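Final report, Chapter 2: Outcomes

The project's central promise was a pipeline that accepts a single protein chain and returns its three-dimensional structure in a standardized token representation, suitable for archiving and comparison. That pipeline is now operational. To close this chapter, we reproduce one record exactly as it appears in the project archive, with the input sequence first and the structure output second.
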Amino acid sequence: MLVACIVPALLTAAPSRAELKACVEASERGQKARDELRFSDARREFLRCTQPTCPGVVQRDCDGWLTQLKADQPTVVVMVREEGRDVVFNSLRIDSTNVASRPGQPLELDPGIHALDVTLEDGRTSTQQVVVAAGEKNRRVVFEFTAGAKKIDLPVSGSLTPIAGVRQEPVAPKRSPLAPLLLTGGGVASGALFGTFALLGRGELSKVESQPCAATRSCDPRQLESTRGLYAAADVAAGLAVAFLALAVWQWVVWATN
């Protein structure tokens, strides 16, 4: 379908074969990254396929996807408070990467789980793990500090010094949320397939409805076979999306409570 749509644009704009290949591949990579909730990678690819060197149909599709991506892009606002008053933090790290941020500035994050670390000027630190959802805007992540509290340096290994007379139980590390992330991605991908098949089915149905035989209901039933097939595929994709997302919710609850 994509190649068929691009041919008219090739005849008018006549980009080189290498440029056409790069545009199509960028649009495909962007859609894959978007469906996998890697919004930052998806934005970079969609920007590439909106360039003037790309065919018009590809530019329009990528521009529409980019607009929707901006609407779905979650943002957080990091705030630090001490005894009820706002405090300016010295540095901020997100997922172990230093982030340049001004107080009150919204920060764009990909949907999913992120670890945020703030450090004050006196060396005190605090960490929070947050789960951000697509479309969530300006979510406040507040770090609370107690005045006068000193920073406690724990051993790098994570083991505490044994206390006489107290039995030390090993603390099991929290498992990675791989299953809920995969199920969430499956739900998003199935939802995208549902929309694609539904739109294609509607397009095929419109072709039949535009024929003269549609007014007299005398069209050959075989003309609707492709429409029925596309709608059937859309129904299957919708069912898969519901199943994937239901399982994902259950897995997120299990992961959060363990």
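Archive annotation: Residues 225-257 form the longest helix (33 residues).
This record, like all others produced under the grant, will remain available to the consortium after the project formally closes.
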